[in-house]
Specification:
The protein is α+β, with helices and mostly antiparallel strands. It has one domain. Helices cover 58% and strands 15% of the residues. The chain has helices at 19-31, 43-72; strands at 2-7, 12-16. The protein has a two-stranded antiparallel sheet. A hairpin with a 4-residue loop joins β1 and β2.
């Protein structure tokens, strides 16, 4: 992993991952089971973001990369 940039617009961080690293993250997240924390009022928002945005976008990106390389090798 390499940090690409940190910008002061509500603090955004740019990260760079190899496709292999993305696959590792997806494999790990696919097996994770979240344990809700009743003391953390933001847990629901965090779980929703990871499940419905981060994981899905990363999975879609990985599929696009796989499809791109499949079509290039044909």
């Amino acid at each position: 992993m390499r940090i690409v940039s940190v910008e002061p617009r509500d603090v955004y961080v740019g990260l760079e991952f190899s496709h292999e690293q993305i696959e590792y993250i997806l494999t790990y997240l696919n097996r994770c089971v979240a344990s809700p924390d009743p003391k953390n009022p933001d847990f629901g928002k965090a779980a929703d973001y990871v499940t419905n945005e981060f994981f899905k976008k990363l999975d879609k990106l990985s599929e696009e990369i796989k499809n791109e390389f499949r079509s290039d090798s044909s």
